[in-house]
What we know:
This protein has 169 residues and is of the alpha/beta class.
Amino acid sequence: xxxxxxxxxxxxxxxxxxxAAKPDDTLAEIVSKANLLGPKEARLLFLExxxxxxxDHAVVEELLPxxxxxxxxxxxxxxxxRCRHVEVAVRFNGEAAKRRFTPSATVERVRRWAVRRAxxxxxxxxxxxxxxxxxxxxxxxxxxxxxxxxxxQACAIAFDLVxxxxxxx
Length: 169
């Protein structure tokens, strides 16, 4: 049986955990191997950028897309959280916008919402802006799940939409 990589992010995890899973492993088995969070009742599992939690009895192989040759494509990208939603606030040019996302939403998904829907930036301007955590100089990578950025018991995060640093020369 071929091993499938599982990339696991979650609230309080400093980095992405990379786990090996068998195609017939359940999500509950994977998370218990990782021994990351407390009781099962306190956790929710999400697929990256998919709205709503998934059942922890779901089988790894069934969650992966199948190409034409029939072999599942990995890795599986999961998020373990205690919050069902994260309240996201984004400021730009004196305006603010808010929206709820699942904890498994990537920083890139939030950025796209902000530049397209919330602030209606033209594509050229949108490409030159990134999200920065308010009150810091931290600009999380595009593939970071927003649930990993929440602090303490809060299920919320606030960003500023700022220009990318330009290199001229």
